[in-house]
Amino acid sequence: MMTMKSIRTVFLFAAAAFSVSAASATDEIIAKARQHLGGDEALNAIRSIYYEGEFESEDGAKGTVKIYFQKPMQQRVELTRDELGEISALNDIDGWRKVYDVNDPSRWQVTLLDAPKIRELQANTWENLNFFRGIERRRGRIEDKGTVELDDTQARKLIFHHPSRVYFTRYFDTDTGRLIMTETTDGTRIREHGENRVNGVVFPDRIVMTQADGTLVNEIRFHKVTVNEEFEDSLFDVPPFAP
Fold first, then answer.
1. What's the rounded Cα separation, in Å, for the pair 80 and 62?
2. How far apart are CA 159 and CA 145, in angstroms?
3. What Cα–Cα distance (Å) separates residue 193 from each residue in 59, 66, 202, 208?
4. pLDDT in tens, 21-40
5. Phi, then psi, of 211 in degrees rounded to 5
6. What pLDDT shows up at residue 24?
């Protein structure tokens, strides 16, 4: 006859087996997603990414965009729209925003970003440079929500939980590993379109951001993508607060 102690032991073994199985399935879809983008060797070699293109916002306004990502934790986004320019940047734990007059460089204002915004930028920077693997090294975790249907496709739903309740929900094609859609903490939906292969890694030609109801937030079209340029720290450092 099985004793209570032996029943509990069997239960614990079953729970452990389920945990290992779930982790194995998660690792499998992440491996497939990384292979779809170019494979471990090509992805691990990336130290920086630079994008250049044009954007269009929900109100029809158009402008130019430049985006820099550099390991371990640097980001810079430059936007110009009509006569207004805006720069937001992250340098490890420091984040700042600068607004300036394109036609009169003497007219500008710099503000420091608050802690929640800095944590968002840190999570975003990690996501763009690490390609789904290694989140536990920054005290994060992946929650596997199993298989769902999206765009008439079987997709694996993974939630990448970063510190301070920042998360990205990603849907991967179970067959190919292709990223179908990303949802951010605030509910914005991001879809990548087209393929631009640089140094053996696939990058999108176009990114479309919408609200949950389908309303356009931003659309970005890239005409230049480079990797592994070395950017000076001064590009990300907090600028002076006065001319």
1. 9
2. 7
3. 22, 18, 11, 8
4. 556 889 999 999 999 999 99
5. -80, 175
6. 86
Find tokens 């503000």 and name the residue.
Answer: 111
| Segment (H or E) for 37 | helix 4-37
For the chain, give the mean pLDDT. 90
Task: Report how far residue 120's alpha carbon sits from residue 138's, in angstroms, rounded to the nearest whole number.
Answer: 13
Give mean pLDDT, residues 93-114.
Answer: 93
Backbone region of residue 187 per phi and psi (left: phi > 0; alpha: psi in -120 to 50; beta: other values): left
Fold adopted by 12-235: outer membrane lipoprotein receptor (LolB), chain A (2.50.20)
* DSSP string over 65-90: EEEEEETTTEEEEEEEETTEEEEEEE
For residue 150, pLDDT over 70 is answered with yes
What CA–CA distance (Å, rounded) separates 147 from 239? 46
Task: Give the three-state DSSP class for 23.
Answer: helix
> Quick one: tokens of 142?
């992946």
pTM: 0.87
